[in-house]
Description:
Elements: E1 16-21, E2 33-38, H1 43-56, E3 60-63, E4 69-71, E5 76-82, E6 91-93, E7 98-102, H2 107-116, E8 119-120, H3 132-138, E9 141-142, E10 145-146, E11 151-157, E12 163-167, E13 173-174, E14 177-178, E15 184-191, E16 193-194, H4 197-214, H5 234-240, E17 247-248, E18 251-253, E19 261-263, H6 269-287, E20 296-298
Parallel strand pairs: 2-5, 3-5, 4-20
Antiparallel strand pairs: 1-2, 6-7, 7-15, 8-16, 9-10, 11-12, 11-15, 13-14, 17-18, 18-19
Helix pairs in contact: 2-4
Bound molecules: flavin-adenine dinucleotide.
Amino acid sequence: MKLTTANPFSGFEAFVTENEPLAPHTWYKIGGPARFFLRPRSLDELQQAAQRCAEENIRVYVLGLGANILVGDGGVDGAVFRLDHEHWRRAFFGTEGKVEVGAGVDMQKLVLRTVRQGLAGIECLAGIPGTIGGGVRMNAGGKFGDIGAVVTRVQVMDAAGHLFERTKDDLVFEYRSTNISAKFILGATLQLEEDDADRIMRRTKEIWMFKRNSQPLNTKNCGCIFKNPRGLSAGALIDQAGLKGFRVGGAEVSEKHANFIIAHPGCRADDVMKLVKIIREKVFEKNEIHLESEVQIWP
Ligand SMILES: Cc1cc2nc3c(=O)[nH]c(=O)nc-3n(C[C@H](O)[C@H](O)[C@H](O)COP(=O)(O)OP(=O)(O)OC[C@H]3O[C@@H](n4cnc5c(N)ncnc54)[C@H](O)[C@@H]3O)c2cc1C
């Protein structure tokens, strides 16, 4: 929907829409609209719009490919920024394995490009949908490694529009989290290793096959719903609680990987949220373990 006249983003109509359905912008394809949806085409536009949000007290959300987000059925009463313009999707291949990437770069496309160029280090991202912004924020990865291991520098912007750089010596990447507190990740520098392209391709394919065989990739989902408790597998705990295949409305615990909740046609975000609650209760009843969400729930 186009922006109406009296609104906090007057002057920004070229890149702001109102009441934008968020479902098509997420992997889950469920959930309500964003009050404001902003796709800035330059740093200047991003800074100005962020400053406007700060002045008007509008809550800010940043969306990547929406591969780790569950948007509630009521949507979000705030401003959702998406850095998907070409400006944010640039990748620059430097010398000795240094690669500079914008926040909007698609991780899967980048994996392929780096493999073809004989650069190793992000094969572990094969089969993990998302952007560099979302990948860095979540420290995307798994048993084969994570993106944090190759990040040497991150460009960030705070909610007021101030720019900063974070470098390797003060960056901490942990299991599905980082110490980056700034609202916006604008880009990152990765340090990759030169290696034989065929060898990297073989490893990438192996990782991809592992994902394909262990995760319900051809369904609507948002990856793992819960973080693994230290030394344990959330999927195994959910399985042991007898919940594989358990359904609430259109939401179902995957038979293939119990830490995935699949959204069937007609599923509502509320179905997923109810199922999340039931899983938490059952796992706690059986093991006295509290499962922490990996999925980011909006609002
Ligand atoms: C089929 C499937 C399999 C998956 N497997 C894995 C896996 O093996 N390992 C794994 O780690 N994850 C996995 N995921 C989850 C998801 O792919 C990752 O979390 C990914 O990093 C999300 O990236 P995104 O761009 O989609 O971010 P989004 O889902 O859009 O956002 C995730 C978080 O990052 C923030 N964010 C996004 N962009 C920016 C930015 N530019 N600046 C600041 N904050 C930002 C959002 O605000 C949100 O908090 C899987 C998901 C799916 C659907």
